[in-house]
Amino acid sequence: MTVEAQQPPAEAGASRPGSVRRAVTVLGAVASVMVAADFATKEIALATLNYRDDVTVIPGVLYWSLIRNSGAAFSLGEDYTWIFPIVAILVAGWIGWMARSLRSIPWAISLGLVLGGAVGNLIDRVFREPSPFQGHVVDFVSVFQPGGGAFPIFNWADSSLSIGVVLAVLLELTGRQRDGSRISSDGGKKPAPGSSDEKDSTSA
Questions:
Q1: Is 21 helix (H, G, I), strand (E, B) or coil?
Q2: How far, in Å, CA of 21 to CA of 56, rounded?
Q3: pLDDT tens string 34-52
């Protein structure tokens, strides 16, 4: 009589590492695309625009207005240039730490947008004039009126960062957690899709 070797039970949450890799891959891909697009659009702006003339794209809506910004996103804090590279590095480190338990694709997209925006402007801070870590960011998108005004001039990285933050707020408001679970209306926490906790709850 032969006794079949009993397979050890799968560890709780064994399906989760794969989802972590998938989410981190999405985060990295989104951030990489945003950084590449930001760098490319800034180089095109520097090659085709000048600092004196505004280009009308859609009258009353969209203009190209090239400036060099020593401040943060949307020209804020222009007298504290040296602080922003430190903030960008801290943001990148925080996102890297968060990615260890990241399983939500929407959160991966949100954090990827924030990371891409932060790194895009960090590259300007580090490598552009007038000096390393005090470089001025290239901004060129103006809305509603040429040359800024009521709404500051911005760039691709600023847009990426802003959209990522707005998406993160929406995810928080709808109860979506970074581990893929979701807070229900009664305050309970629904298990992450594909996890062993979800399988147990559905089979009960």
A1: helix
A2: 44
A3: 999 999 999 999 999 999 8
What does the alpha-carbon distance between residue 159 and residue 171 come to, in Å, rounded to a whole number?
A: 18
User: How does pLDDT run across 98-112, given as a tens digit for each residue?
Assistant: 999 999 999 999 999
Residue closest to 24 by CA, chosen among 117, 101, 92, 119: 101
How far apart (Å, rounded) are the C-alpha atoms in residues 77 and 140? 18
Catalytic (active-site) positions: 139, 158
pTM: predicted TM-score of the whole model, two decimal places: 0.80
Q: Which amino acid is at 70?
A: S
Locate all alpha helices (DSSP H) within the chain, ordered by sequence: 16-48, 83-98, 105-127, 156-173, 196-203
Measured CA to CA, the distance from residue 201 to residue 204 in angstroms comes to 5
C-alpha 109/C-alpha 31 separation (Å) is 8
Locate the domains of the chain by residue range.
18-50+68-138+156-181
Residue 138 CA, distance from chain mean position:
19
The length of the chain is 204
**Cβ atoms of residues 116 and 109 within 8 Å:** no
What's the distance, CA 10 to chain centroid? 35
What's the half-sphere exposure (Cβ side, CA atoms, 13 Å) at 89?
Answer: 8
